[in-house]
């Protein structure tokens, strides 16, 4: 038994070491730096909770948190609704076209966030302007020069990227629904809507738990799309929390202050994720 335990820990040691070097040690280092005046090269002095007090007086950081929250709510709803609709569509009997559609819908998730940002920047700046000139519709003009349309531009980009990924999760759960249940409900006279709402939807509860968690956590962490599409403009009105933290750390060189922001942001994401998991798993139990 002792030899087995020793072998077990020897095989596990590289993973533990990698986890400690990449995650655990940097995390505690970051916590320490958040209590200091750190510029990336040296710790000037220990300031205690001063960084944490200052960030609650930082209007731009608080605004970026609210902007990120609104973006996350809109994105999570859009991603899961569209992802579920796509999953329902590609699980219909369409022969070889099922694979084609699944591949096409999933492909945006394979493109890097920076490239996606520039693709959609071209669409909003060039394609939309072209449509505006042809049709005379003001709706298509200046999409990235306005806070409101810039917000929806980021939401559209993120939904387009993530919907195919979430679709795959819903497909896996839809395929596990027994055919006997669907056949029995059809014989009993249930229509398409009744079959979805009364049978498929309750059985998809575990899929909602996973999909909501993934889409929510990813929405809060968006940076590269934000940088490539709007760069936080105009006048930092579309700056998300991750970009605000990055700018504080690398543009202003206040890394201790940026680390304090990152810790608070981590706590907010953790709290929201725990509440979401609790609510959706409770829903699973109720169903």
Short description:
It is built from 12 helices and 2 strands; from the N terminus they run αββααααααααααα.
Walkthrough of the structure:
It is found in: Cell membrane. This is Sugar ABC transporter permease. Helices cover 76% and strands 2% of the residues. The chain has 287 residues and is an all-alpha fold. A two-stranded antiparallel sheet has the order 1-2. It starts with a helix and ends with a helix. The mean pLDDT is 89.
Distance between the termini: 44 Å
- Using the alpha-carbon principal axes, give the shape: globular
Q: How many strand elements?
A: 2
> What is the H/E order?
HEEHHHHHHHHHHH
Main sheet strand line-up: 1-2
Report mean pLDDT, rounded to a whole number: 89
Poorly predicted runs of 5 or more residues: none
Instruction: Give the structural class.
Output: mainly alpha
Into which percentage range does the β-strand content fall?
under 5%
Q: Provide a count of the helices.
A: 12
Main sheet summary: 2 strands, antiparallel
Radius of gyration: 23 Å
Approximate helicity band: over 70%
Family: Belongs to the binding-protein-dependent transport system permease family.
Domain ABC transmembrane type-1: 65-276
Subcellular location: Cell membrane
InterPro entries: ABC_transporter_permease, MetI-like, MetI-like_sf
Short descriptors:
single chain; 287 residues; mainly alpha; two-stranded antiparallel ribbon; MetI-like; transmembrane helix; transport; cell membrane; transmembrane
Task: Describe how the helices and strands are arranged.
Layout lengths: L1 H32 L2 E3 L4 E4 L3 H6 L3 H32 L6 H10 L6 H23 L11 H28 L4 H9 L4 H12 L1 H16 L3 H6 L11 H11 L3 H32 L1
Antiparallel strand pairs: 1-2
